[in-house]
Design goal:
mainly alpha; 45% helix; binds zinc ion
């Protein structure tokens, strides 16, 4: 493992502490295979700021995928009112965190998250 020499897989930062991300579970508690420690075939290394945003990006992707399903009329994790609420709260939190971040990472733009949040607001809240 050439962990310390290298650059952040997201922003390319060098000469800073890098960490391998093992994300384990996704936002909905499902196993997130690709980056789980034992099955990850292509580990990624991120600097501090990017690793934080990588986690936000993961939740953002999970939630976006479920909104896609919901809009397509398919069964979605968001079909549950509790999960729907939780996802909406998380997206708002992600926007706030991104807007407050000192480190601008190429991973995730708060405008993208805002757009998805708007989509979420137009989806009929499941009864
Ligand atoms: Zn970085």
């Amino acid at each position: 493992m050439d962990s310390v020499v290298g650059s952040c897989n997201a922003c390319g930062a060098t000469g800073t502490a890098l960490m391998k991300l093992s994300l384990g579970k996704d936002f909905f508690g499902r196993t997130y295979d690709r980056l789980s420690p034992s099955t990850d075939q292509s580990p990624k290394w991120y600097c501090d700021g990017c690793s934080m945003q990588k986690n936000l990006q993961r939740d953002f992707r999970d939630i976006t995928a479920e909104i896609d399903k919901l809009e397509a009329g398919q069964t979605s994790q968001l079909s549950t009112p509790d999960e729907f609420q939780r996802a909406a709260l998380r997206l708002r939190e992600v926007v706030a965190l991104l807007d407050a971040a000192q480190h601008r990472s190429p991973l995730l733009a708060s405008s993208d998250v805002t757009r998805v949040l708007e989509r979420l607001n137009t989806v009929t809240v499941p009864a």
